[in-house]
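Troubleshooting entry. The earlier prediction with zinc ion gave an output that would not parse, so I re-checked the input for stray whitespace and re-submitted. Clean input:
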Amino acid sequence: MSQSDVEAIDVKVAVLRQTGAKLKIESAKLGAPRPTEVRVRIVATGVCHTDMVVRDQLFPTPLPIILGHEGAGIVESVGYAVTTVAPGDHVVMTYMSCGLCLPCETGHPAHCSHMHPLNFGGGRIDGSTSTCSCDDASPIHDHFFGQSSFSTYAVANERNVVKVSKDAPLELLGPLGCGIQTGAGSVLKALKVEAGASFAAFGAGAVGLASVMAAKVAGATTIIAVDVTPSRLELALELGATHVINSREEDPVKRIHEITGGGVNYSLECSGRAEVLRQAIDAVTTLGTCGIVGATKVGTEVAFNINDVMIPGKRIMGIVQGDVVANAFIPTLVDLYMQGRFPFDKLCRFYSFDQVNEAMADSERGVTIKPILRMPTSADQA
Ligand code: ZN
């Protein structure tokens, strides 16, 4: 399709209209991509903890807004300046970054100086949106994580779509763009866990289990998963954990010190809870590093013993999106998956798009680790 043929299209979107409300499936119009943008037919999209955090506005955004930020799909049309993808390409959508600030230019786009407006601002950085309601033509905020993928189509930027192999199962790949990339990247790129190291994941949801699989890929020889849900701990063992700890039944810090003889080299806080972060810091040995990835209510603080961090030379590292360059890292995860070395499909369960609220509820109850919404195809709609 050439640029001049590209027009607004009819889409189905799941809209958050009020804090904490259920998402409502509505009809909307989605505009054409701008010069550096792409419009993608969403095949499937993961549901991530951050969607629930924003639904409840613990992390505020403008409303109404289309959430969803783990989209995978097929490029439908592109703006005239786009050079890296073309219609028909299979893509995974990830978060948006500016590409021009110092963190972006030095290979750390997840720490982009414009991360907040680009991903949580409810539109492009100039304040414009691509979506309006079919009922009254009022604008609906979008560009959530540069995509708003709870929709049959989404407009993203060339910068935040990653071309993937057509041999890989596209409907499974969306979660690689956020939750799975976060857990795996934290281990392989941010913490740089090495062969023979000890590692503990606090929280065995999608991020924590991705970190467990990545620790196995890295060659860590002690891999500990901490959670309160027995089924998640069983899955952690299946995915490569050497030990699991139910923190409702035993003190994880004490147990980790027993297993490792003094603490782990690396820990990763994936639960978003202040008291768990304290445990993740206390579980680390001399010169070890505690990474923080759990999304937390704005303003949350934690207390720790300064001498117990300073004297052993512990490091505490904030990590966003695994600190990866998605264009390089997502294809790596696809390769590892295709080789059977990163079986993240074991975390996933499929739902239809109209089950979006049920998928969120199942995730919150711990019934499903990584829900993926399958979008209706044109055959379904006919
Ligand atoms: Zn930037």
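This one parsed fine. The radius of gyration is 20 Å.
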